[in-house]
Amino acid sequence: xxxxxxKKYMLQAKDAExxxxxxxxxxxxxxxxxxxxxxxxxxxxxxxxAHKLADKIENCKEETILLEEVDYMxxxxxxxxIEGFGKHDVEFVQRVLEAEVVEVKEKAKEVPK
Length: 113
Description:
With 113 residues, the protein is α+β, with helices and mostly antiparallel strands. It is built from 4 helices and 5 strands. The strands form 2 sheets. A 3-stranded antiparallel beta sheet has the order 4-1-5. Strands 2-3 form a two-stranded antiparallel sheet.
């Protein structure tokens, strides 16, 4: 499984008056949005699978999400195909492409006595 950090991170930006400020980068929202990006040219079945994964991400209450390899590959594929990322997206792209591999063991069921 792959573990992706979905916590927002802060970006340096300028407000309407040109004053330096910090704004949050919405990692969770960006993960969802790249799944629907037009460059992926999703067919009907692929759209439904992307939507299922997007729902899983949107409904995750944790700051990190564990994804099975098949779901992780959908995100990785999207990041690798989409063009036009900029400086503010570096950490986001790293979080996806360098997602930590996590070994998961099935929890043993307790047998009632």
